[in-house]
Design goal:
single chain; alpha/beta; Aspartate Aminotransferase, domain 2; Aspartate Aminotransferase, domain 1; 2 domains; seven-stranded mixed β-sheet; five-stranded mixed β-sheet; 15 helices; 39% helix; globular; binds pyridoxal-5'-phosphate; transferase
Length: 410
């Protein structure tokens, strides 16, 4: 059976359930899991035609696979991108998007507030291959302007950023990047494809870790790269086919089914995050709260221009407790807080149905060093909370109890 979707534009929730579905000749309801590494040909002639490009047929799951193709098409439809390729992890997606495009002698400009491994690629890996890189403060357009006054091949940025939820003005940076000859690659993990559309705001390539909200239940790793058909087929695809960061069809299938509830989950998580941000702001143990849609976020206007919701993460800063040693800052209070939580998990993951906190200074942002942390505004009292799907009232009660512990004298 081969009914096709109606030709009119479909809304995101519909695309998340229906987009990219390819029924096999068994007419199954749920998307089939093609757990196969290879494919067979009817004849030597069909094999020849497949390899010389005159026939369309799957060849090998490093190149393509029907379950993987369904997820690629669903994500492309949701993003409004011409094409998508999946990878085994979010980092493989970032790495492939960059290395497929760059060569020795090129220059890269990136926002400083990047996911740890993205920071390592830009600061440590690229220079090894003769690719120059420069970091700028993502919120400062004057720094982007200066850095992009020289010819540049690629711009990498994350907005909102991890963990300080800092925004980058996408249309403004895209205009500066294009003037310098660069493509703009946006890591859109924190916003999800539902809250922010980087391609419509001037970006050329969007990357995701499917590990986060798309799976959303902590089961599998995955990554996605989206862009124009020409770039994906001519620049990215030769790189991914020949270097082999392919996603397992099983993992692609888990993410594909995860997407069916993405809009419901992200909506509920945003609602929870906004309520929790307000509750935290009223507590005496909390020095400040960062949530993109709150009136006290320094870039609230930009966030509201660029995003359809405030996101599923809240970052906040704890004050030191009355008995805490000055030199230690708020680390002891932050640890008392984390250890006193009974519902919310301590984990560096995010976008999960289970709420999680992390203390960036001693975990995800430990390796970048104190000086770089200070530049990013990460203190020893900074806590990042990924809001899940539990009842918000239960989460607020858990947070209240843990804050009381954080504020106690030792
Ligand atoms: C998790 C994450 C990545 C990396 O994704 P993996 O699937 O863990 O490889 C990249 N960027 C951001 C913003 C992330 O949160």
């Amino acid at each position: 059976m081969s009914r096709s979707l109606p030709p009119r534009p479909l809304r995101p929730a519909t695309l998340l359930v229906r987009g990219g579905t390819m029924r096999s000749d068994q007419d199954e309801t749920s998307e089939a899991l093609f757990l196969t590494s290879g494919f067979v040909y009817d004849s030597a002639e069909q094999a020849e035609a497949t390899f010389n490009g005159t026939a369309t047929h799957f060849q090998y799951s490093r190149f393509g696979n029907p379950t993987v193709a369904m997820l690629e098409q669903r994500l492309a439809a949701l993003e409004g991108a011409e094409a998508c390729r999946l990878t085994a992890t979010g980092m493989a997606a970032v790495h492939a998007a960059m290395l497929s495009h760059l060569k020795a002698g090129d220059r890269v400009v990136a926002s400083r507030a990047l996911f740890g491994s993205c920071h390592w690629i830009v600061s440590t890996l690229l220079p090894r291959y003769g690719i120059e890189s420069e970091f700028v403060d993502g919120a400062d357009l004057a720094q982007w302007d200066r850095a992009l006054s020289k010819p540049t091949a690629l711009v990498l940025l994350e907005t909102p950023s991890n963990p300080m939820l800092e925004m980058v003005d996408l249309p403004a940076v895209a205009a500066l990047a294009h003037r310098a000859g660069a493509i703009v690659v946006v890591d859109n993990v924190f916003a999800t494809p539902l809250l922010q559309k980087p391609l419509a705001l001037g970006a050329d390539v969007v990357v995701y870790s499917c590990t986060k909200h798309m799976d959303g239940q902590g089961r599998v790793l995955g990554g996605a790269v989206l862009g124009s058909k020409t770039w994906v087929e001519e620049v990215l695809q030769p790189f991914t086919r020949n270097t082999g960061p392919a996603i397992s069809p099983f993992n692609a299938w888990v993410v594909l089914k995860g997407l069916e509830t993405l809009s419901l989950r992200v909506e509920a998580m945003c609602r929870g995050a906004a309520a929790i941000a307000d509750a935290l702001a009223g507590r005496k143990e909390v020095a400040r709260v960062l949530y993109p849609f709150r009136a006290d976020h320094p870039q609230q206007a930009l966030a509201r221009r660029q995003m359809a919701g405030g996101g599923t993460l809240v970052t906040f800063e704890l004050k030191p407790g009355p008995g805490d040693a000055r030199a230690e800052g708020a680390k002891a209070a932050a640890f008392r807080f984390c250890n006193a939580l009974r519902l919310i998990d301590i984990s560096n993951n995010l976008g999960d149905s289970k709420s999680m906190v992390t203390h960036p200074a001693t975990t995800t942002h430990m390796r970048i060093g104190a000086e770089e942390r200070a530049r990013l505004g990460i203190t020893d009292g900074t806590i990042r909370l990924s809001v899940g799907l539990e009842d918000v009232a239960d989460l607020i009660e858990d947070l209240d109890e843990a804050l009381a512990a954080a504020g106690q004298a030792r």
